Amino acid sequence: MVTPFVKMHGCGNDFVILDDRSHALGMTPSRAAVLANRHTGIGCDQLIVIEPAEAADAFMRIYNPDGSEAGACGNATRCVADILMRETGHTGVVIRTISGDLPALRRADGLIQVDMGPAGLDWTDIPLIRPMDTLRLDLPGEPAAVSMGNPHATFFVADLDAEPITVRGPKLEHDPLFPQRANIGFAQVIDPDTIRLRVWERGAGLTLACGSGACATLVNAHRRGLTRRTARVIVDGGELEITWRDDGHVLMTGPVATAFHGQVA
Asked: Which position among 11, 44, 79, 210 bears the catalytic label?
């Protein structure tokens, strides 16, 4: 069977997207890992499968390059929203994930905004292995932690360029404090409206952008009194606008782009 796919990205965070709605693809973690491999497969930060859903426009399943399944991915949500909106002609859709429903809309400027849901601030939300103040974790550097449908820990640093992320990231991702591993963000606050961010993603490594990581970073930065409730988050592949509303929901706005279409056996 030959299956079509589309390669898309949000700020350089790239995805191979397959459609499972018309016929079952039989995707498995091992097959996802093969397709995500940049040397022997198509190559991507995450492999996305669009599946049918009741009471939502579609279900989005997210595979990391190691075959593990992710609960949320903000940049991928915008890409899938773009596909669904172009199909239907609608300016708003609801995408279901294993972490909940994510409403998305296309703004007048063409950017796509996703309601990533409420930020989880309790130690059980993230989760951590034991009770702890999530504003300052008991780790060197005292990161703040939050769940955006997946676990995030944010380290606030003075000089992002000086951080050995590829050394610290893997160790922190697998720290015993995080029973489900964690996405590890390194953030430099430029001013109350601007953050620069790099993220070591759980199961994927260092990527050009991490949408849920940008959301987590803004939440943690505001909790620390470092930013306002809305800020521009600069990632290696572009910029995202993040807002933490008073009701706890986090809005992420940014661009999407299609790299190419193809077919895979």
From this structure: 210
Active site residue 44: no
Report how far residue 60's alpha carbon sits from residue 13's, in angstroms, rounded to the nearest whole number. Answer: 16
Instruction: List the beta strands (DSSP E) in 65-215.
Output: 69-70, 92-97, 100-106, 112-118, 144-147, 151-156, 183-191, 194-201, 205-206
Q: Is 210 one of the annotated active-site residues of the chain?
A: yes
CATH of domain 118-247: 3.10.310.10
Global pTM value: 0.94
Q: How far apart are the first and last CA of the chain?
A: 6
- Structural domain boundaries in the chain: 3-116+254-264, 118-247
User: What would the pLDDT profile of 80-104 be if each residue is shown by its tens digit?
Assistant: 999 999 999 999 999 999 999 999 9
Q: What is the Cα–Cα distance from 31 to 61, expressed in whole angstroms?
A: 14
